[in-house]
Design brief:
This protein is mainly α and 361 residues long. It is 83% helix and 2% strand. It has 13 helices and four strands. It starts with a helix and ends with a helix.
C-alpha cells in the first residue's frame, strides 16, 4: 500500500479535525461579539463555508458538461447531511433543537427540496430556475441574520446578563481569521483525505463504482461532518444542527442555482435522480419534522435510526449497480417493513409529546 496515500489520508483527517475546531471556535465567538445567535451563524456563515467543496465540485462539473455529477453531488450531500451527519452528531451528544428550526428552517428545507423536484420534472434545471434559486439563498441569508440580530437585541433588553455574551474573548478580526483558517483547512483536508482514500481503495481492489458511490460522494461533505461533530463535542449544538440545515439549504439554492445559471441551456437532470434520489432527499428532510418536534431534541436512538437509513441508502445504490437479483428482496424489506415501522413509531412519539401539552391549562 502506498505510503503517500496513507500519509495523505492521515494528514487530511488531521486537517479536518483542526480546521473544524478553529471554525467552530471562531464562529461561536464571532456570534457573541456581534450579537448574533450561534444558530444563525451555523445556518449561514458555517454552512456556507463548509459547503465550499460541494460548490467547487458542482461548478467544475457543470462547466465540464457533467451535469449528473453537479446535481448528484448536491442531492447526495443533502441526504448525507441529514441522515449521516445529524445521526452521528446525535450519537455523540443528544442535540437540542431550536424552535426556529422546527417552525421555519426545516419547513423551508422541505419546501426547497420539493421545489428542486418540481424544477427537475422536465429533465432540466434551466438558467432561469438557477437565478430564482440564487435569489432564494440571498433572501434567506439576509433574513436569518436580521432575525437573529432582532432577537438578540430583545434578549439584551429583557435580561441585562445577556450583555456579557458580547464580551467574548478576542477581537472580531481575530475570530474572522479563525473562521477563514478553519475553512481553508477543511477544504484542504477534504481534498487530501478523499485523494488518500481513493488510492487506498484502489490498492485494496475496491471497484471504481463503489468508490464513486461512497468515498467520492461523501468526500465533499467531510467539512460538514467534521464541523458538526466537533460542535457537538464542544457543546455548540445550535451550530451542529444549524450547519446541517443551513448547508442543505445552501446546497440546493446556491450550488444548484449557480451551476444552472452558468451552464448554457441549464443542467440536465437524470431520470434516476427524479425517480429515486431526490424523493429520498425529500423524505430525509420530512423525517426531521417529527423527530425535531418530539421534545425539541434529537435523541441518541433517533441518531442511530438516521445512520441506519443512510447505510440502507448506500447499500441500495451498491445493490442497484452490482447485484440486480438481490435488489428486489432488499427493496421489498425496506418498503414493506422498515419504513412503515419507523413511520408508526414517529407518529406515536409525536402524539405522546402533544398530549400532555394539550391537556395542560
Amino acid at each position: 500500500m502506498s505510503l503517500e496515500a496513507i500519509l495523505g489520508f492521515v494528514a487530511g483527517l488531521a486537517s479536518l479535525v483542526f480546521g473544524a475546531e478553529l471554525l467552530v471556535r471562531g464562529a461561536s465567538r464571532l456570534a457573541a461579539r456581534l450579537g448574533i445567535s450561534p444558530l444563525a451563524i451555523g445556518l449561514t456563515v458555517v454552512a456556507i463555508g463548509t459547503s465550499a467543496p460541494e460548490l467547487a465540485v458542482s461548478l467544475r462539473a457543470a462547466l465540464a458538461g457533467q451535469a449528473d455529477i453537479a446535481v448528484g453531488n448536491v442531492v447526495g450531500s443533502n441526504i448525507l447531511n441529514v441522515l449521516f451527519i445529524l445521526g452521528i452528531s446525535a450519537l455523540i451528544a443528544p442535540l437540542v433543537v431550536s424552535r426556529q428550526l422546527v417552525r421555519f428552517d426545516v419547513p423551508l428545507m422541505i419546501g426547497v427540496s420539493v421545489l428542486l423536484l418540481v424544477m427537475a420534472l422536465d429533465g432540466r434545471i434551466s438558467r432561469f430556475d438557477g437565478i430564482l434559486l440564487i435569489a432564494g439563498i440571498v433572501a434567506y441569508t439576509v433574513f436569518a441574520l436580521r432575525q437573529s440580530r432582532r432577537e438578540s437585541a430583545a434578549l439584551r433588553v429583557e435580561d441585562a446578563l445577556s450583555a456579557a455574551t458580547t464580551r467574548a474573548p478576542g477581537s472580531v478580526p481575530l475570530q474572522i481569521s479563525l473562521i477563514v483558517a478553519g475553512l481553508a483547512l477543511l477544504v484542504l483536508g477534504a481534498h487530501w483525505l478523499v485523494g488518500g482514500a481513493l488510492a487506498i481503495a484502489r490498492v485494496l481492489g475496491v471497484s471504481e463504482l463503489v468508490i464513486g458511490l461512497t468515498i467520492v460522494a461523501a468526500g465533499t461533505s467531510l467539512p460538514e461532518v467534521a464541523t458538526s461533530v466537533v460542535a457537538a463535542l464542544r457543546g455548540e449544538r445550535d451550530i451542529a444542527v444549524g450547519n446541517v440545515v443551513g448547508s442543505s439549504l445552501f446546497n440546493i439554492l446556491a450550488i444548484t442555482g449557480i451551476a444552472a445559471a452558468v451552464t448554457p441551456g441549464g443542467l440536465q437532470v437524470a431520470p434516476a435522480l427524479v425517480r429515486f434520489d431526490i424523493p429520498v432527499m425529500i423524505a430525509a428532510a420530512l423525517a426531521c419534522l417529527p423527530i425535531f418536534a418530539t421534545g425539541g431534541r434529537i435523541a441518541r436512538w433517533e441518531g442511530a435510526l438516521f445512520l441506519g437509513y443512510y447505510a440502507a441508502y448506500v447499500l441500495y445504490l451498491i445493490l442497484a449497480a452490482t447485484q440486480h437479483d438481490v435488489l428486489p428482496a432488499f427493496s421489498a424489506t425496506m418498503l414493506g417493513f422498515a419504513l412503515p415501522l419507523t413511520a408508526v413509531t414517529m407518529i406515536v412519539l409525536l402524539a405522546r409529546h402533544r398530549t400532555p401539552a394539550e391537556s395542560s391549562p
